[in-house]
C-alpha cells in the first residue's frame, strides 16, 4: 500500500462520516414539514418492517403539514400507528385513507434539547474522523517499521492526513451550526 492509497482511503471514509452526519441531522425535526422527516419511521408491511416511503407517498401540504397517502387502503391504520409511536412526537389525523400529519410548534425547551442532540451528533462525527486519522497514522508507522517508506515520507503523510482531518472537522462544525440555527429559528 502506498502513501497516496492510505490518504485516498482515509478521505473516502471521512466523506462517508460526513454523509452519515448529514443523514442523521436530516432526521432531527425543526418544526418545518419535510418529507424526509418520516424516512426512518418503520411500518409493519406483511410481516416486514419497511420505511414509510416504501408503502405510501409522503408529500408536504404546507410549511407545517405532511400528507401520507398509502398505496394500499389497508395500510392507513398501520401507518398511523407507526407515525404516532415514532420518537418524533407527531400525531397523525386520519381522513379516510389519507393521513394528515400536522407539525406541532416546538417549545423553547424542546428546541434547546434538539440543539444538544445536534451537538452530540456532531461530536460523534468528529470522533469518527479522528479515529480514521489515527488509523491512517498507524498505517504510516507500520509502513516505516516494514521499511516501505522513509520517516520523512511518514511525517509528510501524517501532515496531509492532519490537514484533511482539520478540513472535515471544520465542515462538521459548519453543518452543526447551520442545523442549530435552523432549529432555533421560530
UniProtKB/TrEMBL annotation:
NCBIfam families: frr
UniProtKB keywords: Cytoplasm, Protein biosynthesis
GO MF, one example: ribosomal large subunit binding
Native source species: Advenella faeciporci
The protein's role, per its UniProt record: Responsible for the release of ribosomes from messenger RNA at the termination of protein biosynthesis. May increase the efficiency of translation by recycling ribosomes from one round of translation to another.
Residue ranges of every copy of the Ribosome recycling factor domain listed in the record: 21-184
Keyword Cytoplasm applies: yes
GO BP terms in the entry: cytoplasmic translational termination
InterPro entries per the UniProt record, alphabetical: Ribosome_recyc_fac, Ribosome_recyc_fac_dom, RRF_sf
GO CC annotation, single: cytosol
Listed name of the protein: Ribosome-recycling factor
Main location: cytoplasm
Family membership: Belongs to the RRF family.
Localization terms from the record: Cytoplasm
CDD domains associated with the record: RRF
Amino acid at each position: 500500500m502506498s502513501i497516496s492509497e492510505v490518504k485516498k482511503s482515509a478521505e473516502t471514509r471521512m466523506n462517508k462520516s460526513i454523509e452519515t452526519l448529514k443523514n442523521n441531522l436530516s432526521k432531527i425535526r425543526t418544526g418545518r414539514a419535510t418529507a424526509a422527516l418520516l424516512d426512518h419511521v418503520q411500518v409493519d408491511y406483511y410481516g416486514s418492517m419497511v420505511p414509510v416511503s416504501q408503502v405510501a407517498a409522503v408529500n408536504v401540504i404546507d410549511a407545517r403539514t405532511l400528507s401520507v397517502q398509502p398505496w394500499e387502503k389497508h395500510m392507513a391504520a398501520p401507518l398511523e400507528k407507526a407515525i404516532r409511536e415514532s420518537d418524533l412526537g407527531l400525531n397523525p389525523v386520519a381522513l379516510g385513507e389519507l393521513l394528515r400529519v400536522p407539525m406541532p410548534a416546538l417549545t423553547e425547551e424542546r428546541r434547546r434539547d434538539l440543539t444538544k442532540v445536534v451537538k452530540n451528533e456532531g461530536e460523534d462525527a468528529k470522533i469518527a474522523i479522528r479515529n480514521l486519522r489515527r488509523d491512517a497514522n498507524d498505517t504510516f508507522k507500520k509502513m516505516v517499521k516494514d521499511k516501505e517508506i522513509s520517516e520523512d515520507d511518514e511525517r509528510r503523510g501524517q501532515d496531509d492526513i492532519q490537514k484533511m482531518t482539520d478540513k472535515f472537522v471544520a465542515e462538521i462544525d459548519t453543518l452543526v451550526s447551520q442545523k442549530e440555527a435552523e432549529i432555533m429559528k421560530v
